[in-house]
């Protein structure tokens, strides 16, 4: 299968126009589920990235111990407490009862502690049953979730370690072998796989995009959390997993390039957030 290198021309087609006459909510409503006692920042990074990608509303669900600190970061976030410190069946049932009716997309896993595996499976299945477009990251990337995802327009965003845990094989160092392994698993499980690294590989098993970034400053913690928010933000508007994942990784890289040019190897993931509007603005279309 031929791989295509991501370019602005390709990505421009993946970012939907905004209608002048649109109303709040028509340009994307996103849910972010993540965070834990130790990793409070991940869902915040993801949520602000989702907002900055050009959505209307982002709901951030974090364990109740993190609610105050998460709310204090920004009035832009609508925080829905998870009633337990970790993801449990009870916490998921309460969350499902509190969700906005017209949710477009969700990203789950960044920084999340999962107490009961079945609670994650229940959350994933319930959201898919509501036709919510899903992006799974970090703790949500466990093999048990795979049977729920086939042909449901889901994106998974593993780094190499999460890829091994999810699919049972470590991505090889050879680019061609890496691409083949991503394509094989995307096809096998009916999902879009975004394997993160110095070169991101994005495939749904039929079409594959490569995005080689010369931005080693992006190895700092949290850049993948930002990416998960961008994927969910794009999914909420484009709704196509491959295009949303490809556009998200391209935008994350564009922001990374700007920050590395400015700050060298001293980037933090927060720096990425402030660059997202500037790198996305050239792609804006109003109809
Ligand atoms: N401020 C916050 O709140 C932040 C919160 N964050 C949250 O932290 C959580 C854990 O994040 P994480 O994935 O980095 O660690 P972890 O789950 O132990 O990885 C599993 C194992 O995989 C491997 N491995 C890792 N990367 C690899 C790679 N690129 N290529 C190859 N292998 C790699 C590595 O195994 P090793 O190499 O040690 O054998 C590692 O032990 C996650 O939920 C994230 O969202 C972070 O985003 C930071 C900011
Ligand atoms: N050497 C590198 N050069 C450029 N980008 C990289 C490099 N290594 C990782 N990245 C990017 O950094 C992010 C890493 O994701 P992840 O490991 O999930 O980070 P975290 O979980 O800390 O947010 C991905 O977006 C990936 O594309
Ligand atoms: Mg990560």
UniProtKB/TrEMBL annotation:
Binding site for (6S)-NADPHX: 42, 111, 159, 225
Family stated for the protein in its record: Belongs to the NnrD/CARKD family.
GO molecular function: ADP-dependent NAD(P)H-hydrate dehydratase activity; ATP binding
Catalytic activity entry: (6S)-NADHX + ADP = AMP + phosphate + NADH + H(+); (6S)-NADPHX + ADP = AMP + phosphate + NADPH + H(+)
Protein name from the UniProt record: ADP-dependent (S)-NAD(P)H-hydrate dehydratase
Entry-linked CDD domains: YXKO-related (cd01171)
Gene that produces this protein: nnrD
Positions with a binding annotation for AMP: 224
EC number: 4.2.1.136
């Amino acid at each position: 299968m031929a791989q295509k290198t991501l370019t602005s021309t390709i990505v421009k087609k993946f970012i939907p126009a905004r209608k002048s006459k649109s109303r709040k909510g028509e340009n994307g409503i996103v849910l972010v589920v993540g965070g834990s006692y130790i990793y409070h920042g991940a869902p915040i990074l993801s949520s602000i990235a989702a907002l900055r990608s050009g959505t209307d509303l982002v709901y951030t669900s974090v364990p109740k111990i993190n609610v105050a600190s998460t709310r204090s970061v920004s009035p832009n976030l609508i925080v829905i407490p998870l009633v337990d410190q970790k993801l449990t069946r009870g916490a998921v049932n309460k969350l499902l009862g509190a969700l906005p009716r017209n949710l477009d997309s969700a990203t789950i896993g960044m920084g999340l502690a999962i107490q009961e595996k079945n609670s994650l499976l229940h959350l994933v299945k319930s959201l898919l049953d509501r036709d919510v477009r899903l992006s799974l990251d970090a703790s949500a990337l466990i093999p048990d979730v795979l049977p729920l995802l086939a042909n449901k327009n889901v994106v998974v965003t593993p780094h190499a370690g999460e890829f091994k845990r999810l699919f049972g094989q470590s991505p090889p160092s050879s680019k061609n072998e890496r691409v083949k392994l991503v394509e094989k698993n995307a096809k096998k499980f009916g999902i879009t796989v975004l394997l993160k690294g110095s070169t991101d590989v994005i495939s749904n098993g039929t079409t594959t995009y490569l995005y080689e970034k010369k931005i080693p400053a992006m190895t700092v913690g949290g850049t993948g959390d930002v990416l998960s928010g961008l994927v969910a933000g794009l999914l909420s508007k484009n709704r196509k997993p491959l295009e949303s994942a490809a556009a998200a990784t391209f935008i994350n890289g564009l922001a990374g390039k700007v920050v590395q040019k400015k700050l060298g190897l001293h980037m933090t993931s927060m720096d990425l957030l402030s660059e997202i509007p500037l790198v996305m603005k050239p792609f804006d279309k109003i109809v």
